[in-house]
Every structure is written in C-alpha cells, then in structure tokens.
Amino acid sequence: MADIFERLTKNYGPLGQHRERAHGYYTFPKLEGEIGSHMQFRGKEMIVWSLNNYLGLANHPEVRKTDAEAAAQYGLALPMGARMMSGNTEFHEQLERELAEFEQKEDAVLLNYGYQGMVSIIDVLCSRHDVIVYDAESHACIIDGVRLHAGQRFVFKHNNIDDLEKQLQRAEALVSKQSDGGILVISEGVFGMAGDQGKLKEIVALKGKYNFRLLVDDAHGFGTLGKTGAGAGEEQGVQREIDLYFSTFAKSMASIGAFVAGDKPIIDYIRYNIRSQIFAKSLPMPLVIGNLKRLALLRSHPELKEQLWKNALSLQQGLKAKGFDTGNTNSVVTPVYMKGGVEEATAMVTDLRENYGIFCSIVVYPVIPKGHIIYRLIPTSTHTQEDIAVTLTAFEETKKKLDQGIYKVAEIPAMADV
C-alpha cells in the first residue's frame, strides 16, 4: 500500500519541480505598493502588465472611500451565516437586481468566487443524464466543473462552429435515448489566454437547429466589451439569447465575488440548490457595498473603458508594427507569441524585470506545447503612452536576444542569481 503524501512529494509536477529555485521570483512573486500600472518588485519600480485591473477601479478614490466606510460601519463578519439561513441583506439583493438589469436579464444571484462559482453552476445545472458540450480552450474552472459532471461531455475545437455542430449531433443522439436528458453548451465570452472572443453569435444561431441551453463565462468581457460594458454578448448583439451569463468581480471590478444572470425561474432554481452558496458564508457586507459602487462607476464613467481600449489598441498595434505575433485577439487581452523553451523564457523574464523594469506574465509548457512562449499583457486604463513606448522597446530588444540564442541557459537561474 502506498502512502499518499509520499507519492505526491516524489513528483511535485511540471511547475512544482522548480519550486525551490523559482519561488518568490518566477512563481509566487510579491508585488508591493498600491495597485496600479507601476508597482515595486524586490525594491525596483516596475511597469506592471499582469493585473486584471482593467478599468483602474482598484485604487479609484471613490472606491477606496466606499470600501473603507463600509468596512468601518459593518466589519467583515456581517452578515453571519449563509444567505439562505441568516446571511441575506437588502444590499445583496440590490446588487443582484442591478447586475440583472445591467446584463439585460430578469434576475441574478451572487456567488462568493468566480472559480468556485463556475464549478458550482455546472454542478447544479447538470444531472448524469445531461450532456455538456464545451470549447476546448475553456478556462480551468469550466474544465474542472465538466470533469466533476457525472454524465457525458463532448469538447469542440476552439471556436470551430462546424465541430461544435458535430458534437451537438453526437449529444442529441445520446440524449434522445433518455427522456430527461438535455444539452448544455459552454463557451467563454473572451478567452483569457488568447484574447479572442467566443463565437457567441454563431453559437446562438445554432439554437434554431438544435435544442440546447448556452452558458457563457465572460470574466474578461464584462466591463470591457459592448456599448455599455455589459460584455461580449452585447458586443455581438446576442446578449438576450444567452441563457446564463456568468462573470466575476475579479477583473473589471477589481474585487472579489461573482454572479450569474438569466431568466428568473432558472436563477431561482440555482439560488435554492447551488451547494457552494447554500453551505457557505454570505459575501461580506463591505465587498457587496464596494461592488455596488464599482458597478455604478462602470456604468456612469464610459471614459474608463474608452481609455482602456485606447491603451490596448496602442499596445497591440505597436507590437504588430514591430513584427510581433499577437494572434487573433479582439479584446484588450494581449498575447505575444514567441518560440523558445522554459529556460529561455525564464531568462527573458529576468532580463525584462531586472534591466527594463517590465513585469508581465509568461506562459510555457505544460500549459502550452513545448518550444512555445506566450507573454500575456493586460493593459489597463491607468497605463500611459510612455509605459507603452518603454514596453515596446523592451520587447523589441529582448526578442533580438531571444532570436540570437543569448537566453539559452542550462537551467532556471536561482533567485539568488538574479
């Protein structure tokens, strides 16, 4: 018989194997100072492209004032207990009403966290007789929710509507054998790694041919896309045809929590059956009141989204002008695709941080295939044109070093070496 802990600690995984050398620098780094486009990392000022503070609300003076006043008045304990039992307030219900109205839905229900929320939504919606059809590049919270699903699931190639239709045909053939089986299609509004929008308009069009419900995770589209900022559905003109619209407060709202919005009967069902909320403490009052303020600013200050897009387009166009591959992004998420291994990627990250003052996120194997590197830059409304110019120069110079093989090293440098 094996010891569970012994088995696990013999293999820490593809990322964990580097923990002793990487922790605190390449993994689990500590950014210090007020949240913004400039922060401190190990005593040095950095231009930061790694924070999902899209609209700059994290340190907006009205937000900070509301957060502080709510914390002073209510503390973090109120309300005590789960919403269903003793943790409900008028503020919670007000936030749900305003979110539903903003998303052109009849009702909405609050969730404590985005990741947990999506896993729980899939769980509460689907029985073992149902079939889930989902995009191959869905976020981990969707993948994990689907893995926990007791029934069948089919994956369709990323944003490939022809393949989606094939999977729908397979799903219909399966559920037709069971009287109480149905189909749930899941896509993202904006895919957070590549930045391309889900083909929601084309997916919705298939409803005329197939019987399914559509769940959209729009974490990166909420607040950044659409005329009012209501997200990818609004941007593509199909918001009302999305059956369940989900988003988190962790991106444009720079907060904690999430919500799902849809027709009142299904939201009521979720409200009374979603286990992660029924058996968990209610979202604390300062967060609820703070999120009300953030939503109000999102709705009343369109210039924040306009500035975000001005910065995003300036960054993306500048990268393309210098010959960088930014893929198919049609959102503010800005990926930069390069060739190289883990060792080259970490050496390049070190150079960008230590010699150029640029802090950004990097993705390598096993998240993506070996030999590839993706930098994911997250522009915000608080970045400046100078920030963008400095970053473009840094990327241009470090890309030359990468191509010349300067970053080829034997192993990941230790923290003490940088």
Furnish the topology, listing elements before pairings.
Layout: H1 4-10, H2 13-16, H3 19-22, E1 31-32, E2 38-41, E3 44-48, H4 61-74, H5 90-102, E4 107-111, H6 114-125, E5 131-135, H7 140-147, E6 152-156, H8 161-175, E7 183-188, H9 200-205, E8 213-217, H10 232-235, E9 244-248, E10 258-262, H11 264-273, H12 275-278, H13 285-300, H14 302-321, E11 334-339, H15 342-356, E12 358-359, E13 361-363, E14 372-377, H16 385-403
Parallel strand pairs: 3-12, 5-6, 5-7, 7-8, 8-9
Antiparallel strand pairs: 1-2, 2-3, 4-10, 9-10, 11-14, 13-14
- pLDDT average, as an integer? 93
Rg over C-alpha atoms, rounded to the nearest angstrom: 22 Å
Shape category: globular
* Largest beta-sheet characterization: 7 strands, mixed
Report the end-to-end length measured between terminal Cα atoms.
43 Å
Structural class: alpha/beta
Describe this structure in a few short sentences.
The chain is an alpha/beta fold and 418 residues long. Helix content is 41%, strand content 15%. The strands form three sheets. The chain has a seven-stranded mixed sheet with strand order 4-10-9-8-7-5-6, sandwiched between helices. It has a four-stranded mixed sheet with strand order 1-2-3-12. It has a three-stranded antiparallel sheet with strand order 11-14-13, covered by helices on one side.
Description of the molecule:
The chain is an alpha/beta fold and about 425 residues long. It folds into two domains: about 160 residues, Aspartate Aminotransferase, domain 1 (Alpha-Beta Complex), CATH 3.90.1150.10; about 240 residues, 3-Layer(aba) Sandwich (Aspartate Aminotransferase, domain 2), CATH 3.40.640. It is built from 16 helices and 14 strands. The strands form three sheets. Strands 4-10-9-8-7-5-6 form a seven-stranded mixed beta sheet, sandwiched between helices. Strand 13 and strand 14 form a beta hairpin. Helix 14 runs parallel beside helix 16. The longest helix has 20 residues. The two termini are about 45 Å apart. The model has no long low-confidence stretch (mean pLDDT about 95).
